[in-house]
Design brief:
Number of helices: 3
Largest sheet: none
Shape: elongated
Distance between the termini: 59 Å
Number of strands: 0
Order of helices and strands: HHH
Helix content: over 70%
Structural class: mainly alpha
């Protein structure tokens, strides 16, 4: 339950913050009236913020899923599916 709530609120934070960052960047570019150097800086900062938020959410979610699967002991099923070792004796 707690894990599901964390995932929902984390996704909600990303979904709400990315359009907010994009909106502020678009407004800033619109207000700059063609100053190319500053526009590039604003767009670069906005892209960095959006990609950082999204990557952080996905990274935290991946680590959480991995930790949960390890805690539940799902690693044993992967070992059972591994290729079996050969039991035939080597040729002399």
């Amino acid at each position: 339950m707690v894990e599901r709530d964390r995932a929902r609120y984390g996704l909600l934070a990303v979904v709400l913050s990315n359009p907010a960052i994009s909106g502020v960047a678009i407004f800033g570019v619109w207000r700059l009236d063609g100053d190319k150097a500053v526009i590039v800086g604003v767009l670069t900062a906005a892209f960095t913020a959006v990609s950082s938020m999204t990557t952080a959410y996905l990274g935290i979610k991946a680590v959480s899923n991995t930790a949960k699967s390890i805690a539940l002991g799902d690693t044993g099923s992967r070992r059972a599916q591994a290729a079996p070792t050969s039991t035939t004796p080597p040729h002399l």
